[in-house]
Design goal:
The chain has one helix at 49-59; strands at 20-26, 41-46, 74-80. The protein is α+β, with helices and mostly antiparallel strands. It has a domain at 20-60 and 70-80.
């Protein structure tokens, strides 16, 4: 397997089962919706609720390269197994 630049860029799916997640959904008003499948979403899984909650805060912060007036167009939802 080749090395990767950042550990969060997985080249193979994680096999470990984790119980605390975040579901990320794209708002229908985002122009990116025209480029991805209808109802696009992504799930991120964590070992603990605390780990998940910390990641959620970081994920939902305003992106450092936003221009003035740009607004996030992602919705985040906590999920538990």
């Amino acid at each position: 397997m080749s090395s990767i630049c950042h550990p969060h860029n997985l080249v193979t799916p994680a096999t470990e089962l984790k119980n605390f997640g975040i579901r990320v959904k794209l708002r229908s008003s985002d122009p990116f919706c025209n480029l991805v499948v209808n109802n696009w979403q992504r799930e991120h899984w964590f070992n603990s609720a605390n780990e998940r909650d910390i990641a959620l805060v970081k994920m939902s912060e305003k992106y450092v390269y936003f221009r003035p007036g740009d607004k996030p167009s992602l919705d985040f939802e906590k999920i538990d197994k």
